[in-house]
Amino acid sequence: MLVQSGETVKTGQVLVRLAGSEQQAAAVEAARTELMAAEQALKDIQLNAEQSRAAALLRLANAGKALDDAKKVRGYREYRNGSDSMVASAQADLILATDTLDKAQEAYNYVSKYDDKNLLKAGALSALSNAQKAYDRAVANLNYVSSMPSQVDVDLAEAQLQSAQAEYDIAKREYEELAEGIDPDVLAMAEQRVKNGKAQLAASLSALADVELVAPFDGIAANVKVDSGSWVSPGQTMLIVADLEHLQVETSDLSERDVPSVRVGQPVRVFIKALGQTLEGKVSEISPIAETLGGDVVYTTVISLEEIPASLLIGMSAEVNYLAE
């Protein structure tokens, strides 16, 4: 028993707690913890899905770039396949160009002492210039073809292209799968866990409510009938909560002859015998079901008072006069 007679209580305040409440309170906390874990797991699944999609998109972008780079390298394959023969041909061209240049140089040296206007000297100089140009082209061509990749480079580039293509295909499939959303089965299981957690918490709270009696409204604890440690039976009254600030008068003898002239909202005067005081009020309720009192058919009415004296107590007798309007 958590209250005593005459104690003021507030709405929702626990008045009586039955044995076993500790276990029920622990069950409530366990259910609340499970629900929090289920909700967090669902959030993690949703968050991980977003992060996975972002990571898959980044992987796809990197794989696409690597594939483009591999294709560019692979684009020189036509030249790589014939690189050995092209080098040999360029070397032969250089040998011939070197020989031609040497001969042109010897011919020019022979006539170099002649006058610049000499036709032989002019012809030898022109031949030397052309031979030098041919030699320079041969050297440049040999350097170019010699710098081309070998067959090993060709094979490596081919392997890198195939690897890049495979990585791109895998990254694309992964992103397309993740772009479709979370696995429906995984999501359904996580959502069902949250649903079960809510149901379990509601059941635990309901079970806890069954072992705790709370005040339904603000009032005074009155007529406490049991002590802590007492055994109680279903339906047994353990205490009464009284709302002294909103006391009403209940009649029990309005005859069937008079009830047709009474309506809800009709003004009344109420005489409190114990106080010798007359109070004003209105009819707030008329029972639609009759009762029998001493062989007479009567109806119960409820009267709301406009003012409640501090000395008015529950159970006092009152006389009600229904005023004509």
Automatic annotation (TrEMBL):
Keywords: Coiled coil. InterPro entries: UPF0194_transport. GO terms for cellular component: cell envelope. Its main location: other. Residues 28-55, 154-181 form a coiled coil. It comes from the Bacteria. It is found in: Cell envelope. The keyword Coiled coil applies. This is RND efflux pump membrane fusion protein barrel-sandwich domain-containing protein. It comes from Ornatilinea apprima.
